[in-house]
Amino acid sequence: MNSVTFPRKIVVGNFDPNLISSRCAAFESLLNLIANESRLRDAPAAIAFFQNVELNESRKLINEGKFDQALFVLETSFKLLNKVYTDRSRVVLSVLCRIVACAGYSGGTLAGPVEKWAQLALRRYEAVSDSDLLMIYVPLLHTCISIWDTLGRDKTKLVEELNNLRRRGMKVDSVPSLMDAVDGLDTSL
User: Fold this and answer.
1) DSSP label at 127?
2) What is the tally of structural domains in the chain?
3) Where does the sequence pass through the membrane (predicted)?
């Protein structure tokens, strides 16, 4: 942490472009330090700092039916988390699945973003082997099948993947919604 220094606080001139620029550079240095040090990155305080405000705000907006606003909050959160954590980390996959679930709740009204985020989530899950994270994969597939159906896309590959999981002994029917599955994962942390 000694290598990260922030400009001193000042009473007047907080909007000075040089001060803003130096604060941005210092914050970027802090992000890089955290991203490269697993003890810092995986600390509950760091995870909470990077996602709790946005997570609570998105939940509130989803409960109010404001899916486009919730999606914006979650997308912004994803961009930051994706800089600090690996592509397939629990934190990144969790927010990514929340984005897909939120987009899915919109009933297809967010067509462009829905498909983009769902495809990204499916790609990120291709090499996941953590059993906790795999418990989200089946609800993700169900949500994507529903999204593809709403958008009129070919869902054959998704249905085949679900059937492959069924043949391998995974429970694929009567699973929680994607949002409930992600919420369950978060409480197990």
Assistant:
1) G
2) 1
3) none
